[in-house]
Amino acid sequence: DVERRCGRTLMALREHLLKAIWHAFTALDVDQRGKVSKSQLKVLSHNLCTVMRIPHDPVALEEHFKDDDEGPVSNQGYMPYLNRFILDKVSDNFDRQDFNRMCWTLSSRKNLNLSRLIISNEDAFKTWCIFNFLSEDQYPLVIITEEIEYFLRKLTEAMGGSWVEERFEDYKLLLSSRQQSLSAWELIALVGSGHFSKGLDKQALSMGINEVYLELILDVLKQGYMMKKGHRRKNWNERWFVLRPDSMSYYVSEDLAEWKGDIFLDESSIVEPLQDKEGKKCLFIIRSSQKSFEISVSDKKKKQEWIQAIQTCLNRLRDGRPAPHHEAQQKRRQIRAKQQAEQEELELRMRELQVANEAKQQELEKMRQALEEAAADAAEEEQRRLQTQTELQDRYRTDLERERLVRQQIEEQVAQKSTELEQYLQRVRELEDMYRRLEEALEEERHARQDEEAVRRLQARLLEEEATKRAELEQIHLRQQHAISKTEAEKEQLEKERLAKENALQAAMEQLEHLEKERQGALEQYQTVMKKLETATNNTKSWKHKVAEHEGLLRLIGPGDKGQALITNWGPAAFSDMELSHREKQWQKMKTEKSQAQ
């Protein structure tokens, strides 16, 4: 665990050094071509070695680039030398502030203009250090919107002001229209413009920057005046204490000019309260592996705050956890990485859905073509049926014409049957009308069946879409339930995403209701078509019955038979025996109905 912790510390130190060196290298690139001359790199390398207490080998740079010409060296070309001869030899035994100030001096000469800012050069330097801490581990260095908000919130809190969410949202919209991040000098200009410190003086802004700088850069977790009992004289002296993750330093005053000592904290250290004694109140003791320190504060609230802060440091040391702001930064980066992975997964899913949708569209297109072919076949079949019907009608007309000729011959032979022929022709006309109405009823029945098939297909498609939407709705609901089951810390970050999913769920519900309404309309249309079909079927049966009845009464009149002719009111041989019997039955039936009606 110790080796792993040391490895993480060295990696974090290496990343911090690379960011500051990148600023210095970029400042030396006057022409902005991404290259710096060897003479400037020699001076930079010498200064880096001096500040970081590394033995400098002036010949190493020349040996490293001996195959190159005298031209400038790019950043990629300088990195192997920097890693091998400087960063691989560095240890955490130098003053990081001296290192930062050296890189700041090189970069600020080219990029910083304080004439329009309300902050000092020292405040700009501290803001630059904060930028290096919060910026992404990608080059060129930038700070994203989330980290800008984090820094401005802490700065506003340190100044004692109130955070105005609407003001930052407006600035974020302005920032999004141009880009999604800021460079170090843009961040300094933003802080120095006083846009987010309106109503506060320059001193409050400077003190706020310093407080954030102490917490994020110098790892100062708490500081303040307390009384410490001496180890030799046993007297009580007031000291300015500064608490860091693994130590507690104390000075004569808060300007940190005169250092008096350190209290080193480790896993075995203990902090606990003490009873009041020797006229001192609000006591507590820090027991380290080497010494014990008795400390007194002014009131119980400060005592509890200090004990809790020190105990938090000890717990973090035992758990191997970094400082709170380092841990918070790691969590924010992990959340962003997770959100990016989820976004990439969502985009991949959208692409898969798009491919599936395209395949579905192709399948629907094939179905449409098949339906068109089926419709063409049905139209061809209908054409053949009409042609057959026309042929039957022509044949029927031919038969009628032949029958008319026969009737004429019969009229020439038997003049007495002229009235019968007129009645016969009347029956023929009624029969033709019945056939025409029968054809119309059959046509209505065919259209009704086509409408029924169309409604069935529409209802099937609507049911399929409804099932698809219900499945999508269940998937969205499951994802929403999964998102809700996450930790409370993730809920705050994913609130916007949950709202977007709820909006998508609401839109899916509305679309599902719309599909339900369409399905109800299709069902009503289907019922209407079924009623039409039933009516057309009944009409067809009625007309078929009437035609059958008339066909039973209709017969062709042939030449008179040789049997005994009957004499009626219409003359001799006007009816056969069967017709006479049928007419007699009808006359008796009409007489009976008439008498019943009376």
TrEMBL record:
GO function term, MF aspect, one: DNA binding
Extent of Basic and acidic residues compositional bias: 317-330
Keyword Phosphoprotein: yes
Keyword vocabulary terms for this entry: Cell membrane, Cell projection, Coiled coil, Cytoplasm, DNA-binding, Membrane, Nucleus, Phosphoprotein
InterPro entries per record: EF-hand-dom_pair (IPR011992), EF-hand_SWAP70_N (IPR057836), PH-like_dom_sf (IPR011993), PH_domain (IPR001849), PH_SWAP70 (IPR057837)
GO biological process: convergent extension involved in axis elongation; convergent extension involved in gastrulation; positive regulation of oligodendrocyte differentiation; regulation of exit from mitosis
Domain PH: 219-315
Major localisation: membrane
Stretch list, region Disordered: 317-341
A Pfam family that the UniProt record links to this protein: EF-hand_SWAP70_N
Annotated SUPFAM superfamilies: EF-hand, PH domain-like
Protein purpose: Phosphatidylinositol 3,4,5-trisphosphate-dependent guanine nucleotide exchange factor (GEF) which, independently of RAS, transduces signals from tyrosine kinase receptors to RAC. It also mediates signaling of membrane ruffling. Regulates the actin cytoskeleton as an effector or adapter protein in response to agonist stimulated phosphatidylinositol (3,4)-bisphosphate production and cell protrusion.
Protein name: Switch-associated protein 70
